[in-house]
Amino acid sequence: MPRLLSTRAELRDALAEARRPLGLVPTMGWLHEGHRALMRRARTDNATSVVTIFVNPRQFTEAADYTRYPRDEERDLGICAEEGVDLVFAPPVEEVYPVGFDTKIAVGSVAGPLEGAARPGHFEGVATVVAILFNLVGAERAYFGQKDAQQVLVIRRMAVDLAIATEVIACPTVREPDGLALSSRNVHLTPEQRAAAPVLHRALTAARDRWRAGERSAEALRATMRQLLATEPLAGVEYVSVADAATLAELEQVNGPALLSLAVRFGSTRLIDNEPLGDPGGGGPSQPA
Ligand code: AMP
After folding, report:
1. Longest CA pairwise span in the chain (Å)
2. How many CB atoms are closer than 10 A to CB 185?
3. Residue whose CB lies within 8 A of the most ligand 1 atoms, among 40, 41, 148, for a mutation test
4. What is the pTM of this model?
5. Atom from ligand 1 closest to the CA of residue 146
6. Active site (catalytic) residues
7. Is the peptide bond before 172 cis (omega within 30 degrees of 0)?
8. 3-6: long-range contacts (C-beta < 8 A, 24 or more apart)?
9. Environment class of 143 (CB within 10 Å of its CB; exposed 0-12, middle 13-18, buried 19+)
10. Which stretch of DSSP H or E encloses residue 222?
């Protein structure tokens, strides 16, 4: 079993004895195959693997989404054990944000569009908690999912700008056999919504295929995604984007690495997905190794 730590002091003591290098996988729990892939990569690359499980209240923009976010620490620990994780840090809220906590990290332009526009304050919450975790763990490497592509760019920017030495590594999105990206929120889908949800991936792959066939008009690629999504009556489209892979600025022409992305609601459950065009690692500032 991994060692379970719930306070900063316990974490510090455990890390003092840990073999280096250290690989960190920050999560909000309700672990699935996507998280497992990050854990495996952290184990393969590093002598010690650390998983954090913390449902971060500051990154939720809807109170109901935070309250109903699925939680099951015992099940999560079992998964960490199966994956051979060494340390699990699962702190209570006051251990991450002690009384008097009054700081926010706001990343600039790359946090502005897409998820940043749809969920104001979300990335401030993400950047703040990740900075705390990076400082508490001091890992050589941290692993994030390409599923949350904008999050990777925001965190990489933050780590570079704040001179945090942890290298930010993006790992490919893990999907169900029908193409739906794994997400802890999928558990909220009704059977009908679950059956409809693979339309996100179908829309992305249709646009990617048009790009592969030579289409370079971003509006044509957006239209392809919108047309596919429109075939599914349960899908409430929030945004469809074809953006520069490094800046996330919307494009007119796709002449370099780009990111197709979308956000779609099924009832009260909001799903996001994306597909990189060109450069699989996405763009963003490079970090020293
Ligand atoms: P979460 O617990 O949803 O905050 O996710 C924790 C980490 O797992 C983040 O870096 C996510 O991007 C990543 N992740 C979530 N879903 C997937 C997936 N389907 N494939 C790969 N990584 C994922």
Report:
1. 56
2. 17
3. 148
4. 0.97
5. 12
6. 35
7. no
8. 3/86, 3/87, 3/88, 4/77, 4/88, 4/90, 5/87, 5/88, 5/89, 5/90, 5/91, 6/89, 6/90, 6/91, 6/92, 6/95
9. buried
10. helix 218-230
Please give the Cα distance from 197 to 176 (Å, whole number). Answer: 11
Encode 209-232: b = buried (16+ Cβ within 10 Å), e = exposed. ebbeeeeeebeebbebbeebbeeb
Look up residue 1 and give its two tokens: 């079993």
User: In the numeric block, which tokens belong to residue 110?
Assistant: 């790359």
Closest protein CA for atom 19 of ligand 1: 182
Residue 183 Cα, ligand 1 centroid: separation in angstroms? 7
CB proximity list for 80: less than 8 A, separation 6 or greater: 2, 31, 39, 51, 88
- pLDDT tens figures, 33-66: 999 999 999 999 999 999 999 999 999 999 999 9
Ligand 1 pocket, mutate which of 35, 58, 175 (most atoms under 8 A from CB): 35
Residue nearest to atom 13 of ligand 1 (CA): 145
In the structure, which protein residues have their CB atom closer than 6 angstroms to any atom of ligand 1?
27-28, 34-35, 37-38, 144-145, 147-148, 171, 173-174, 181-184
Query: Which ligand 1 atom is nearest residue 148's CA?
Result: 12
Residues in the chain: 289
How far is the centre of ligand 1, averaged over its atoms, from the C-alpha of 259 (Å)?
A: 17
Q: What is the Å distance from ligand 1's center to 97 Cα? A: 23
Sequence-distant (6+) residues with CB within 8 A of 268 are 64, 188
**Low-confidence residues in the chain, pLDDT < 70:** 280-289
